[in-house]
Amino acid sequence: MDRVNRIPILKLGHLLLVSIQVDMHDRMALALQEDLAERIAETGARGVLIDISGLEFIDSFIGRMLSDIAGIARVLDADTVVVGMRPVVAITLVDLGLTLPGVRTALTVERGMAMLPAPTVDEDPGDEEAETAGP
Amino acid sequence: MRARHRVRELAQQAGLRLVDQTKFVTAVSELARNTIIHGGGGRLRAGLLLDGARQGVYATFEDDGPGIPDVQMALTDGFSTGTGLGLGFGGARRLVNDFDVRDNPTGGTIVRVATWR
């Protein structure tokens, strides 16, 4: 698959940020699932923020993709929050009957970040050294 | 993908409100997927409607697949024979003003949806 067809995943401290700015086609959505799983494992991220403010609509495929991502992240010990859903997309989603099982949502990136775990002490290399030094 | 953009343009031209544009495009995406999964691919036609002073947009999906044995059943939420969430038909119907399913005389199914301004 081409690089241009992949959605970038940014590391933001102990979190990963995915900003979906284009209407995804199916292969792109599947590639995102794989890429994100890899990045969570690689970075040990505890939280994933998915910004969907660029999405003009969510159909059942994209809805299921978001649920699947949240489920995959969960078993890799990371929480997912979907942020920035447009009001008209929310209205359409409910009409369509999609419930996004397992997906937590927040209105803004800031509020989404507040819902995710804060960096823990054991992620700080300085403290690890202190522990091994021991009494 | 290109089809969705074209349908969005048509919905704008028909003067639909943003929420109705979004519902229509979502329904089209849902039905297009249906056509590919159940009908083995097909043809999508879309255009503007004019009925007196009323303006609208329509889309038809025509496939040569096996057809739908029980349309009423297929419109029930949660009913699915494919890999989706089973929202395809019943969900799409709630997003548009007019929804019509019929057998294609040459085999397969024709679905027609329309939304008016």
Please provide a written account of the structure.
The complex is a heterodimer of chains A (135) and B (117). With 135 residues, chain A is α/β, with parallel strands linked by helices. Helices cover 44% and strands 16% of the residues of chain A. A 5-stranded mixed β-sheet of chain A has the order 1-2-3-4-5. Chain B has one domain (2-116): Histidine kinase-like ATPase, C-terminal domain (Heat Shock Protein 90). The two termini of chain B are 24 Å apart. The mean pLDDT of chain B is 84. Chains A and B meet through helix 2 and helix 3 of A and helix 2 and helix 4 of B. Chain A: Residues 5-116 form the STAS domain.
Label this structure with key terms.
heterodimer, A: 135 residues, alpha/beta, Transcription Regulator spoIIAA, 5-stranded mixed beta sheet, 5 helices, 5 strands, 44% helix, 16% strand, globular, disordered C terminus, B: 117 residues, alpha+beta, Heat Shock Protein 90, 4-stranded antiparallel beta sheet, 4 helices, 4 strands, 29% strand
What is the average of the pLDDT values of chain A? 86
How far the N terminus sits from the C terminus of chain B, by CA atoms, comes to: 24 Å
Largest sheet of chain A: 5 strands, mixed
Distance between the termini of chain A: 53 Å
Largest sheet of chain B: 4 strands, antiparallel
Specify the CATH architecture of chain A.
2-Layer Sandwich
Assign the CATH topology of chain B.
Answer: Heat Shock Protein 90
As for the number of domains of chain A, it is 1
Helix content of chain A: 40-55%
Number of domains of chain B: 1
Name the pair of protein chains with the most residues at their interface, and give those residue counts. A-B, 18 and 23 residues
Q: How do the strands line up in the largest sheet of chain B?
A: 1-2-4-3
C-alpha-based Rg of chain A, rounded: 16 Å
SS element count, helices of chain A: 5
CATH superfamily of chain A: STAS domain
Count every beta strand of chain A, where a strand is a DSSP E run of 2 or more residues.
Answer: 5
